[in-house]
């Protein structure tokens, strides 16, 4: 008996293959790749959803804390800013510069605005804002 005959005599051949003890593969690479891509997309979507949830939750907690007065410095800064926007004050000294309430400043800007803005603004600026 030769060595080759021993291998072929004792080997069990699987139908559809030319090698002993090898079964045909039933899963294609395309199926595996599709499965991996699907899982990766699901993981990415879960991460995005988690970040959105934590961002909304953190924003809600911060808003609630600010409204409840947990941050007294924030409330103090808001009150100080509102006070600065609503009062008159000499900034540099008498006759130099003054702070006026924001509503009054807007009224003055409207009153002092040029009637013919073409004479006041540069031609390049007015070219984009011509009246139709």
State the oligomer.
single chain
Helix count equals 6
The low-confidence parts are: 1-6
In helices, the fraction of residues equals: 55-70%
Which strand-content bin applies to the residues? under 5%
Sketch the topology as an H/E string, one letter per element.
Answer: HHHEEHHH
The gist of it:
The protein is mainly alpha-helical and 132 residues long. It is built from six helices and two strands; from the N terminus they run H-H-H-E-E-H-H-H.
Detailed description of the structure:
- By secondary structure, this protein is mainly α.
- The chain contains six helices and two strands; from the N terminus they run αααββααα.
- The longest helix has 40 residues.
- The termini are far apart.
- The N terminus is likely disordered.
Which labels suit this protein?
single chain; 132 residues; mainly alpha; two-stranded antiparallel sheet; 6 helices; 3% strand
Give the arrangement of secondary structure elements:
Elements: H1 3-10, H2 29-68, H3 72-85, E1 89-90, E2 98-99, H4 102-112, H5 117-120, H6 123-127
Antiparallel strand pairs: 1-2
């Amino acid at each position: 008996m030769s060595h080759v005959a021993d291998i072929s005599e004792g080997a069990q051949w699987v139908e559809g293959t030319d090698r002993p003890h090898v079964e045909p593969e039933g899963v294609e690479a395309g199926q595996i790749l599709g499965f991996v891509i699907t899982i990766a997309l699901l993981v990415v979507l879960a991460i995005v959803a988690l970040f959105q949830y934590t961002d909304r939750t953190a924003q809600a907690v911060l808003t609630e804390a600010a409204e409840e007065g947990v941050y007294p410095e924030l409330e103090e800064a808001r009150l100080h800013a509102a006070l600065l926007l609503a009062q008159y004050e000499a900034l540099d000294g008498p006759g130099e510069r003054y702070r006026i309430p924001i509503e009054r400043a807007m009224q003055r800007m409207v009153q002092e605005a040029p009637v013919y803005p073409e004479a006041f603004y540069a031609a390049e600026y007015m070219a984009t804002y011509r009246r139709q």
